[in-house]
Every structure is written in C-alpha cells, then in structure tokens.
Amino acid sequence: MLIREATTEDWPAIWPFFHRIVAAGETFTYPLGLSETDGRDMWLVAPPNRTVVAVDDGGTVLGTAKMNRNHMGNGSHIASASYMVDPAHAGRGVGRALCTYTIDWARAAGYRAMQFNAVVETNVHAVKLYRSLGFEVLGTLPEGFLHPAHGYVGVHIMHRAL
Q1: Residues of the chain with pLDDT > 90: what percent?
Q2: Which CATH superfamily includes the segment(s) 2-161?
Q3: Where are the domains of the chain?
C-alpha cells in the first residue's frame, strides 16, 4: 500500500465511498445530503493542510485522510485529521496506515498534539484503533450525535500528545 498526496484526479475514486459513508449518517457530522462539489471542497484541503490517498499496487484508492490544524491562532499547534476507508477494503489495515501517516505528518510539521473533535462513540472500530495508537478520550459530549439506528449517542473528544 502506498500513501500519497491526493489530487483532483483522485476525487472520482473517492466520491463513491465518501458519499456512501456520509449518507449512512453513522460516523461523520457532515450533512447527509452533501453534494459532490461540497464534499470535494471540504475534503480536498489546501496547503498547509493535506489530503492523501492510500492506494494498492494497481492504483486503486483504498481510503483517504485529510490533515489540518485543529484551531487557528494560539491553538494552531494542535493538529486534527479525518479518515475514510472504502468499505470494500475494510479490515486490511488501511485505516491504521492512514492514521499512522497523519500522526507522523503532524509530528514532522511541528504540531504538539492531535485532537479528534467528534468521534462517535458507536464507531467502536475507530475508537479501538485510535486508542491502540495512543489516543485517549478526554471527554464525551452526551447525545452529541443522532445515529440513524441507535438514536442520540455520545461524541468523544480524543487526544494524543506528539
């Protein structure tokens, strides 16, 4: 698996699973009816932020991550990231590789920590992955997310020092 900078030419490969994940309404706080144009504009971020894709040997996009500063000004030393793995390629280490990549990027860019602002508590695979990579739950916003199957569930704020 290769992780490389995403380009606008990658968007047609990202959009189908991006749309499927967002429309499912189980893990992201994005609008469920997000248009392709708005999704692209939100995901393909401009420098100094970055968006990457994980591709297999044949060039198939397996997943994607975007990395950015979490806050501006005096809070700009904390990074954040978001990840989407094509469900057709889940369970193959793509999420772990992307998360590790973003941690390394943030450290190299001089960030002091990474913070995830809204990890849905029912997204147990993500929570387990993040914990295994050294993230801790700092707190949980009760009923901060309306899950389509579980109703109102908590949203974790997760943090890891770099």
Answers
A1: 100
A2: Gcn5-related N-acetyltransferase (GNAT) (3.40.630.30)
A3: 2-161
